[in-house]
Amino acid sequence: MHCSAPLIISAVCKRWREIAFDIPDLWTTPKIYLYSSKKVALQQRLLSAWLARSGRRPLDISVAHTNSFQYELPLSNPSFIETIIKSAVHLRTLNLCLGSGLSSQFFTGLVCLPALEGLQLWAPELDEDEEDLYRVEFSLPKLPSLKYFRTNIHCVLAKFQDFANLRVCHLVSVTMDEALEFMRAATKVETCIFRDVYPTAQTSEPGEDLTHYDLKDLEIQPVALTNTQAMKLLFRRLIVPSLHRFAYNTQKVNGPAHFLWMIFFRSWFDQSVTAR
């Protein structure tokens, strides 16, 4: 466990410890750093006691591992994951900076996280020979209260759901169709950041158009292999009358000069404005 305020306060003296243990709000934001496989069992016991003191308060939980920690090892200690799952109904935010294989175990068997408002699933930088770990297949439970979502694990988009209350999303490594389908599912999203956008396998046809009336901030960064024609097809399918800010990062793309893109986007903006 991270040496934070509750632990410091409760270590002052017996009286302070008794007072700290009786204040549930002190124990609602545990931050767990996995740095040694030998310490996982101890961290699990500390986490269990920590969450017990939080009562029924909303929880903001963060779990991460250090670079030296072999994140396959906690898989042999499911009680650590189960400790958090037991409090899943009280989760308000969940931040997992772990390998995608371990992240997926947090959602196995979960049907719904009714109170979760913020979710970040971030796989650390991996070597090229470990890149397949990003592709572990799993889907999310129902998230009716989710407002903020950030992930670089591509497979999490395998099955879309109704993100009815989502306001902000940051997705990495998505195809053009996935980006469109995500915006189609998140009807109230206001800010979308799509990084490393890949062309869809079939880009010869425009496909079904999407008009989004709540999106205000859109940022897209395609990958190097994305061709100009593919990106134009994406924007021809997307109409955003509510857009206030748009950023298109062409740093990784081999395409036309910036002024040619400006001409194209001006036409796209005019199309969106006409739809207002």
UniProtKB/TrEMBL annotation:
It comes from the Eukaryota. This is F-box domain-containing protein.
